[in-house]
Fold:
Amino acid sequence: MKFRLLLYLVICSVTVQAQEYPIDPDDIYRSPVRAVLNQFSITVTTGYNSTKYSHDLSGFWYLQSATEQFISPNTGEPLGTEFDVYNNWFNNPALSQAVVLIDTFDVPYPPIANPVNNPLLLRDLQAYNADSLGLGFEGKSWGIPINLGVRYNYKEFRVGFGLGLEFHTVKSLSPTVDGLNIRNYEPDFKKAVFFSYYLNLGYRFYDFWDWSFAGEIEIGKQNMGKKFNKGLMNQGVFFNLGVSIEKNLSEYFRIVIKPSYDFKNYTMSVPETGLSVQHKNPTFKVNFGVSITIPEIRRSPMKSDHVQLKHLYTDPQTGRVEEVRGQPIWKKQNPKVGENHRKLWRYKFKNRKKLNPY
Structure:
């Protein structure tokens, strides 16, 4: 009985002291610099980009020989016997030497004499009216991107900017018309480095447990590198629509997976003709990486402090009270109850074959 009474008096005394000396929230130190930086997030991603190139050759003749491919302006009249042709219309249209269209049946000896050995056939050009055929080329290429973004967060809204670098690989383009023995178009390069910069606008529209979903729009410009002739190229802005799927490992650290789609195109002018070729190059992207929000409070200076909830720390030298955290920013945790040991010791993988895991 005496023990219960003594315990009751001790509890009452502690309660009274706690009520008499509460910690005023205004007395808790909070870094103003960290408070501002906490509104920003940094995102780094990589992944896989699949680009589909396509164009049509409206307004041109398409010509091919055994080794080369050309286009020539279509004036509505037959080609004639001599005319100018252009190559590399995909990335760097240039005037090639004037060519002469040879009649393969006009040979200096009877055509029945094995035409395979006719030397004129080796230089023969086959001509196709791209307007009447609806001829064009299309194909898929791929790239590995590296993206860096910084954004400002205000409740569910986010706005920021980003930089992108893509190591791009170009493949051959197939003709859109079959059955005419038209070869695939081979660009004069295989690899290129693309650079882009963009504005990012987003809205977090759904949260489910530790998952977040945000719709995002990117508007920017892409520099397609030295392989493309900038003097002949007309390129507008690109638009990207995507959904950012975020696994929140903590309040400050999350894993991001973002499928998205680029809408973009460019035009290559053909010199001295007043004509151009319109190219479409939309891109489907699947990028993944990490996003970090700068913490508004610092890590506890006590190395043995692993408390998961935010808590107060009193500096023993200055007596200043501040709020700290006991976990690193990448620690998977539930901020309300903590998850230092989410799986029982006996069920851990390294103990799966032990009779006594303890």
User: Anything to note?
Assistant: The first helix runs from residue 2 to 20. Helices lie at 2-20, 32-37, 130-133. The first strand starts at residue 28 and ends at 29.
